[in-house]
Amino acid sequence: MWEFIVQYIKGCVADGETERVNQELDLALRLYCANNPENWAKLLPQFEFAHNQRTHSVRGKSPFELLYGFQPEAAGTVRITPKHPSMEQRLQSLQEAREKTIAAHTQAAAAMSRRLPAAQVLLKLGDKVLLDTKNLRLPYVSWKLIPKRVGPFTIVKVLGPVTFKLKLPEKWKIHPVFHAALLTPYHTTKEHGPDYVRPPPIPTPESTEGAEWEVEAILSHRTRGTQKQYLVAWKGWPASENSWEPEKHLKNAQSVLRNYKKRPKLS
């Protein structure tokens, strides 16, 4: 169960917007607490208040406004006339802490934006992209053989400046929202131009019933009930089209199946 939760969090990237906010908060905390590394915990309430009072770049409102419907006054902005020097000093300290937090947030947001290549920031609805596989659990025999990127996939919804929803294969069953850092614009080539379609069925040497999709490799196997299934990579098709097939579907790929079964610790 724990492994599933960890993989789910990674797969969501974590919904890309959340990951970006988490990274921004992490960087802002580092900047804010740089001069106070020993009492950083005492600074957290001020940091939290300043964060919740800050206007969100996507929604145009602060978390306070979205949650409560109004923007509360910061302690340093309360209009009172202090009667004790220590109170005045405390209010001044709170105001300075708030200003430092806002400055740290602004600096962190700018740093996060600079990390993204211009091509990723300009992604838009309908674009085709390649998806980075570093957080995906793809069923390959070895992680060293997993392609760096898979796709292309179409952007079906823009959720924010750097957060996009993709149209993924139904059998993937993962959260389809990703941060732009995991996406690479897909470009056609001279060989495979805009009208390029995936290869048609390829006649296999063992086929006696006409053209069918050729098995390029068998990558893994599993048992479902009493039936053994094999993960098949189809020749000329991207890894996103790999599928689990029962052995009876591989009657015209016996040589590939025999070679797979000869591998160590396989049967």
Automatic annotation (TrEMBL):
Which Pfam families does this one have?
A: Chromo, SH3_Tf2-1
Domain annotation Chromo: ranges: 213-267
Q: Which CDD domains match?
A: CD_CSD
List, in alphabetical order, the GO biological process terms annotated in this UniProt record.
Answer: chromatin remodeling
In which domain of life is the source organism classified?
A: Eukaryota
Q: Which residues form a coiled coil?
A: none
Q: GO terms for molecular function, please?
A: nucleic acid binding
Among PANTHER family, the record links this protein to: PROTEIN CBG26694, PROTEIN NYNRIN-LIKE
Name of this protein: Chromo domain-containing protein
